[in-house]
């Protein structure tokens, strides 16, 4: 079965997908389902992040540093593989309007327990250590979301 | 010479420095007014590998990236 994918895909590195603008959730879901349809996984757990309307924002906007993101993601591919599982991730670059999606991740595994554990660990570590910067878009201006951001592991090294 | 780049919201041009170790980079960045306040919250990569080793040796052409606090998703 051919799946049409009209959205511009910027980058794919072993199941890491970066798109310009909001994610097309249903298309990505079905693409991943299709990719693993013969892999004999018993569990598929996706997590979808959607931009909420709050604080009068029009959109959120994202910068990504791809070389470090790829290394972070590849570490997770390896960690998942040791547990017989597979991780996938898609993220938006640039502006993402409210009520659309900026982030999807998923775990496939033979049985549910590992997938449930991994999706928790994978999403939490993503929030802490994926090199992605978020901005509120208000009145057409990008404002760095400093108060919602987390210093990455090893922070403060150069202040010593 | 090594290059230092400032990622994400840090509105700062790439700079070039003479430095033998990351500690030398730290000393010089602490003297730049627009950069110094960020340093206590920033992580560091050398040639795209994250590091927590302040004594790390640097060689000519190395690229140091300064990564401010993140918030993906």
Automatic annotation (TrEMBL), chain A:
It catalyses: 2 [molybdopterin-synthase sulfur-carrier protein]-C-terminal-Gly-aminoethanethioate + cyclic pyranopterin phosphate + H2O = molybdopterin + 2 [molybdopterin-synthase sulfur-carrier protein]-C-terminal Gly-Gly + 2 H(+). InterPro entries: MoaE_sf (IPR036563), Mopterin_biosynth_MoaE (IPR003448). The keyword DNA repair does not apply. One of its GO terms (molecular function) is molybdopterin synthase activity. Pathway: Cofactor biosynthesis; molybdopterin biosynthesis. Keywords: Molybdenum cofactor biosynthesis. Heterotetramer of 2 MoaD subunits and 2 MoaE subunits. Also stable as homodimer. The enzyme changes between these two forms during catalysis. This is Molybdopterin synthase catalytic subunit.
TrEMBL record, chain B:
Pfam families: ThiS. SUPFAM superfamilies: MoaD/ThiS. Gene3D superfamilies: 3.10.20.30. It comes from the Bacteria. This is Molybdenum cofactor biosynthesis protein MoaD. It comes from uncultured Sulfurovum sp. The lineage of its organism: Bacteria, Pseudomonadati, Campylobacterota, Epsilonproteobacteria, Campylobacterales.
